[in-house]
Amino acid sequence: MEAIGYITAVLIGVSLGMIGGGGSILTVPALVYLMGTNPVTATAYSLFIVGSTSLVGSMQKYKQGLVDIKTGVIFGIPAIIGVFVTRKYVVPAIPEDLGVFFGFDITKGVMIMLLFAVLMVLASYSMIKSGSKGNSETGNEVSQKTITGTIGIFLIILEGILVGSITGFVGAGGGFLIIPALVLLTKLPMKTAVGTSLLIIAAKSLIGFLGDMSNMEMDWQLLGIFTILAIGGIFLGNRLSKNIEGAKLKTAFGWFVLIMGIYIIARELMYA
User: Fold this and answer.
1) Which DSSP category does 144 fall into?
2) What digits encode the pLDDT tens for the residues 167-206?
3) Cα separation, 24 vs 75, whole angstroms
4) Does the CA dihedral 212-218-221-223 come out positive or negative?
5) Quick one: how many helices (H) and strands (E) in the chain?
6) Which of 125, 171, 231, 262 has its CA 20 to 30 A from that of 118?
7) pTM
8) If DSSP codes are grouped into helix, strand and coil, which group holds residue 244?
9) Which of 50, 160, 40 is nearest to 91 (CA)?
10) Which residues contact 244 (CB under 8 A, 6 or more apart)?
11) Contact between 186 and 216 (Cβ < 8 Å)
């Protein structure tokens, strides 16, 4: 099982390199189901692994002109605040045993995994729907149709706080939430949204991880191996993304997220 887990680490990087998200969708389940890590600890590890890998990926995308710095800053700062506060204060305050609901024994770990999966299913719908409409923009350079007006900026800040808080709670990098927001609210081309998403994920995930360092012991050997393998995978994913149409990436990503979300819900309820 550990060998499969390390293979998954490479796929984490491939996913981030190709679609700017999906890393935590693989990371958290891999750590929990394949490496035997506690769900709460896995969410912390996910922040470090996905954050470090996304940082490398964002540098690659920036060199290709596929990162919108202005959008990343406006979205990223409130997201960073949300994830840090959530990891530092909110998650540690939640009791381990939450009680029995509809015959299911819900613990803190089960609740985190279920919420994580529900968010995946909801996010997959917008990705599949918007991806099926196609995208006429190539995404070879940063779009000029970025945020305009007070209302647009306010929506991005609000979305940043929301995504940051959710990221802090479930340990997800949030690419499956950030990318739809960037595409729908800022009108960025898919491939530019991918690059900008990586920058945002890197910043808020790594800073969010700092909120965990004083709350739990870290297995740095496991973190190091997973991170190195994932970084190797992101170089491969970035290369593959150059030859794949943005709309197809979005649709494929949506179906992947949907399948993984349904699987996690079914598994968690089965053993609750």
Assistant:
1) S
2) 788 766 677 678 777 877 777 887 788 889 889 988 888 8
3) 19
4) negative
5) 11, 2
6) 231
7) 0.73
8) coil
9) 40
10) 18
11) no
